[in-house]
Amino acid sequence: MKSISKETEKYDVRNKDTSDTNLTVVTEFLLLGFQGSQLLRNLLFLLFLVIYNATVCGNLLIITLVSTSKNLHTPMYFFISQLSISDILLTTDIVPNMLYILLNNGETISVIGCLTQFYFFAGTDGFECLLIAVMSYDRYVAICNPLRYSSIMTDRFCVKLVAACWILGSFSSFFVTITLSRLNFCGSNIIDHFLCDLVPLLEALCSDTSIVHLEIYVVSAPTVIIPTTIIVVSYTYIVISVLRIPSSTGRQKAFSTCSSHLIVVSIFYWTIFGVYVPPSMEKMEKTSDVNKITTLMYTVFTPLINPIIYSLRNKDIKKAVQQALHKHIM
Predict the structure, then answer these.
(1) CA torsion through residues 101, 106, 111, 115, sign
(2) Contact 180, 215 (CB under 8 A)
(3) If 0-12 CB within 10 Å is exposed, 13-18 middle and 19+ buried, where does residue 148 land?
(4) Which residue among 73, 95, 154, 187 has the highest number of C-beta atoms inside a 10 angstrom radius?
(5) Which has the closest alpha carbon to 76: 266, 324, 256?
(6) CA 306, CA 286: separation in Å to the nearest integer?
(7) Could you tell me the CA-to-CA distances from 319 to 253, 257, 298 in Å, in that order?
(8) How far apart are CA 257 and CA 202, in angstroms?
(9) pLDDT of residue 57
């Protein structure tokens, strides 16, 4: 077991000293993860291992059911399956590395490896922000324009929407990652986190970060601000339309079609805004433990919760599971 102090001393030797600027260029980072006793870290390892396996299995189940069950060949379930794919990618990018950190009380990671993890992390997050907005629009069309739903939400249109979400999320993350890779990391190479997140990377830069902040604001428009606006507007119209339904049974049925998605939206955006808003470096540095827990919510627990919400609160998926079990048993 390597101690943090010895590992830090090793880093000081590995880093390349630039005597002309009296700065130390960082070539590797030390991810601290969750510091504590060996027993605590072992318990966290077992917990996150179980959660990771359950997350992958649960989301694979959703993907399989949507692909094989004809009753689930609808736009809503197609979007849910894409969300499951994103959840698997997100948790796979984070959890295996975090498990290694827990076992070894920290981990060395190269700058390139750190930026690679950040690229996939930010890309899947951007995709989910966009996809959730698309799912809100889908619910808006289903409730507010039910007669035109099949003509608007065609298979081709749904595929184009999902492709646009993947492309825009990937490119947004790519531009920020490339800009970070062209800047110099110096000073402290210790990241008090379990992943290579944006804030600790910005804190490790000795170059002018104004270009990075500018890109973040530019990227946040199509991946955060616009999707949030679409969600708010869509659900505003949904609430207005539902309240106009005369019967209480009709209102309840209409709300039930979007309740699962609304829960997912609330959990995802609450945790995202809890970490990144307001973007005060000093505040985030003082509450690193709080940020770790909040980040865990949308990188580890949310991908686990999503399939549970959609399966427990959805009659179609329950029926598909029963049919699949009956088919294999018989």
Answers:
(1) positive
(2) no
(3) exposed
(4) 95
(5) 256
(6) 31
(7) 18, 16, 28
(8) 41
(9) 93
Residue 14, pLDDT above cutoff 70: no
Residue 122, classified by CB atoms within 10 Å of its CB into exposed (0-12), middle (13-18) or buried (19+), is: buried
**pLDDT 10s digits, 27-55:** 889 998 888 888 999 999 999 999 999 99
- DSSP, collapsed to helix, strand or coil, labels residue 156 as helix
**319 token code pair:** 């029926």
Distances (CA, A) of 36 to 40, 68, 106, 169, 299: 6, 45, 11, 36, 21
Six-digit token pair at 83?
């969300």
Alpha-carbon distance 56 to 321, whole Å?
17
Q: What count of other Cβ atoms lies within 10 Å of the Cβ of residue 177?
A: 19
DSSP tag of 183: S
Helix residue ranges per DSSP H, 145-247: 149-152, 155-181, 198-203, 210-220, 226-243
Q: Which of 15, 10, 77 is nearest to 206 (CA)?
A: 15
The rounded distance, in Å, linking the Cα atoms of 275 and 257 is: 30
Tokens of 188: 């402290």
| Tokens standing for residue 57 | 């299995």
**The tokens 């949904």 sit on which residue?**
238
Q: Both tokens of residue 80?
A: 């849910």
Type of residue found at 157: F
- Which residues contact residue 291 at a Cβ distance below 8 angstroms, ignoring those fewer than 6 apart? 193, 199, 275, 284
pLDDT (tens digit per residue) in 282-295:
444 445 677 788 88
- The least confident of 81-85, 129-133, 239-243, 289-293 is 289-293
The whole model's pTM is what? 0.84
- Residue 4 to residue 204: CA distance in whole angstroms: 18
